[in-house]
Amino acid sequence: MASSSFTVSRYRQPERSTVTRFHEMLPEVPEVVIEMDAGDQAGPGSGIATSLKTDLQGGIGGGDEDISWRIKVFGSNSCAKPHGKGWFCFVWEALVDPTILILLVCAALLLGFGIKEHGTEDGWYNGGSILIAVLFIVSVSAASNCRQNKQLDKLSKISNNILVKVVRSRSQQNIPIFDIVVGDVVCLSIGDQVPADGLFMEGHSLLVDESSMTGVNDLVEVDKDQNPFLLSGTMVADGCAKMIVTCVGTNTTQKSIEQTPFQARLKKLTLLLGKFGLVVGFLVLAAQLVQYFTEDSPDENGNKGFNGSKTKVDDVINTIVGIIATAVTRVVVAIPGGLLLAMTLIHAHAAKEMMAHCALLRKLSACETMGSATTICAATPALLQNRMEVTKSVVGAESMEGRSYTSIAGSVLQLLQQGISLARGSVHKLFSVAPMDDAIHSWAVMKLSMDMDNSTQGLSILDVEASSPEKRSIGIVVERQQDNTNVIHVHWRGDFERILSSCSHYYDNSGQVKVLDDEQRATFCQTAKGIAPGGLRCIAFAHKYFSKEEYKNERVHRKVPDKDLILLGFVGLKTSCHPGMKQAVEDFRLAGVDVKMITGENVSIAKSIAMECGILDNDESIITGEEFRRCQEHIRMQRADNIRLMARSSPLDKLLLVQSLKQKGHVVAVTGDGINDAPALRLADIGLSMGIQGTEVEKENSDIVIMDDNFASVPTVLRWGRCVNINVQKFIQFQLTVNVAAMTINFVAAVSTGETPLTPAQFLWVNLIMDTLGALALATGKPTDELMKKPPVGRSDPFITNIMWRNIVGLASYQIAVILALKFKGKSIFGVNENVVNTLIFTIFVLLQVCNLFNSRELEAKNVFKGIHKNKLFLGITGITIVLQVIMVEILNKFAHTERLDWKQWGACIGIAAFSWLICCLVKFLPVPKKPILHCLIN
């Protein structure tokens, strides 16, 4: 190998301890790896392959013992990730919250004063109940947060687990990137991510994008002589190659879970409500303190007011601490801390369900953004099945229908068979077998009696210009051993129009080379057009001889010569849309989402595909990429909405269309069709990549990966996106109803009587229902068919809609009326004492929130019980809440400061709470204005 211009500092080395251990077993390896610039005259692949016990053609053995040995010596292809937060971390985070700390201090003081005044047996209840309630809520919230953190971490690992093509045991196979080991032979092609550090072994025209490592946007050429180094995390921009892995794990990075825009808006809402709750809590605190210091006569419960010097200091401190504890619990309840928890639960549940429907969520924000999508720009691979079949063919200027291969001149047949075999990659095995390659190969074997081994025997590949969605062709340079060593053969295969434009001659049926004049060119084009209306794609084959001197002169900028070629023939490939494609497009239209087909195919083929998929309405909505590109910006803006099909489009054309649509206010989703679609995927609001045919560049720049490459799976993503948004709205309605009711009740009661209906422990129990249990109950709602019959909701629209405000005000008003009526008239209504009234208030208020959970299941529908039997988690949580409430009233009555209730009183509590279902139904008959209420305040 020639002396490399790169130094060791550019090449990451194994850990010193690893090198030492490996040196004991294979002492020559450190000299190859660490002293790489000293080199080996045979090239980087030879010496190191032997040292790593790797067969350059067959790869490593790949057995369990072999893999274990390599992992033990060199490590695995993942970094040691810092341990995720455990339960105790979340507990600690909750305990250091200022409001919780104040509550704990108040609880400790009440506990001390209570024991001092009433003894250990009875004096611990006031402070102890607050202390236990706080610890219980903190523990439950921490457990929920811990569970969701682990679930999101699991989803993150799945989204980052890229499949890599390797050669093991002489066969090519796909394995997860985390399973790559030192010594693996990795096959790289356009769009692949380099999975680990390694050395170039063989390949052609390899250009690598190292901007993620170096920050330089220029592509780096990698070859066997001058620069054989491949760095983990870089992307293959062009060409193909095999590499041998020399170092693993050092480039793994742990991504943090990003905060979505929707979560940012929820955080603002939380802060706003927290400030409002703080003001109300302060007013209630002030009212209670004023009542205490101005009333010197005992209240109805025998609690003494402040009476100057006659009141003991301990009593004053005890009372003030109790008032402060009550005020702080109100603030805790007022701050809807469960909003962000609910958001996490909803996202995690949606991501899990979407994964079951072949959609991998790479970014949390994509799910909620998808719910607002107004336009989807779909590329051809997403629309068509991953299977092709050759149905028509032309060889030697004549159709092959009804003809045998024996009618073709031997020289033409041999060249065509070589071109097919080489393009399929059967010799160098650097290309994966695409459906098109497979279809053409099967046709050649059946129709041309092609023998794969014989057709490429004696060929030596000199160079390859790999195919891409933009070039739509592949060029291969070979040298035949039986030829004069001065002869070079160039084979091209690709899109018919692309190849035909590069041809100046063609082979006739007898094998003679003839000039491709305008008349014959028009004849070929007419034949190709006859193929296209059937939904076929035309692929042409061409060839040319060069002397070595001519080849060197023709080969400019490392490109395979593609001028003055000789046409061998062309074939028509038939494919069809995915099953359910028309229904998917119809589903989008019912949902108010416009579907546009963006393809590189010619107009005739593209039109046939679009009509089969149900995308195209009329010819007026067809445009070519060039036409759109040449339009002025304001014309593009005008035409963007009406376009249904853009044929012969380049990545730049797709980018311009996405820009125009976004400038008009659309929320745009885009499916990728190649490595150069990365800018369009990044610019789009939602980038969709294909899990099977998509490159790693596409996946890296996308937000959602469609694992089955089926566009018919995308409506499911839209359904879950809308479901995420609606589930968040349901929880917001639930929490705000409780907040409005609780704050209003406490304020009125404190100002009127100096007391609040609920104790601190009871308030904390209500807070647990609001935050944790409520979030769990409402987070798992599933999408309904009605969601797909509504138009998209703008991302800037207020997420507290007029319908939600109507429901919140109506239901909160009922709760306020009931609780205040009981507070002021409960004794006379039920004929009981104050303690029983307070227990009735506590029980009814909790049961009202249970009913509120049911009411929040449907924002508009009047039947809130529809499909309730399918949501077992919801039923389980409501059941647990009711059981715990009964236990607090009937068993833990001293702890909860309650009195036992008889059956009639329980029946009254249940009846009053259940009546809110009827109130909810009646409220939903009220019309709401279209203009958003408090739009400016919320946003």
From TrEMBL:
Catalyzes the hydrolysis of ATP coupled with the transport of calcium. It is found in: Membrane. One of its GO terms (molecular function) is metal ion binding. Keywords: ATP-binding, Calcium, Calcium transport, Calmodulin-binding, Ion transport, Magnesium, Membrane, Metal-binding, Nucleotide-binding, Translocase, Transmembrane, Transmembrane helix, Transport. It catalyses: Ca(2+)(in) + ATP + H2O = Ca(2+)(out) + ADP + phosphate + H(+). The chain crosses the membrane at residues 87-111, 123-144, 272-293, 320-346, 731-751, 763-782, 803-824, 836-854, 874-893, 905-926. It comes from Sesamum radiatum. It is an enzyme of class 7 (translocase). Pfam families: Cation_ATPase (PF13246), Cation_ATPase_C (PF00689), Cation_ATPase_N (PF00690), E1-E2_ATPase (PF00122). InterPro entries: ATPase_P-typ_cation-transptr_C, ATPase_P-typ_cation-transptr_N, ATPase_P-typ_cyto_dom_N, ATPase_P-typ_TM_dom_sf, ATPase_P-typ_transduc_dom_A_sf, ATPase_P-type_domA, HAD-like_sf, HAD_sf. It is a multi-pass membrane protein. Residues 42-109 form the Cation-transporting P-type ATPase N-terminal domain. The keyword Hydrolase does not apply. Its EC number is 7.2.2.10. NCBIfam families: ATPase-IIB_Ca, ATPase_P-type. SUPFAM superfamilies: Calcium ATPase, transduction domain A, Calcium ATPase, transmembrane domain M, HAD-like, Metal cation-transporting ATPase, ATP-binding domain N. Residues 164-257 form the P-type ATPase A domain. Belongs to the cation transport ATPase (P-type) (TC 3.A.3) family. Type IIB subfamily. Residues 756-926 form the Cation-transporting P-type ATPase C-terminal domain. One of its GO terms (cellular component) is plasma membrane. This is Calcium-transporting ATPase.
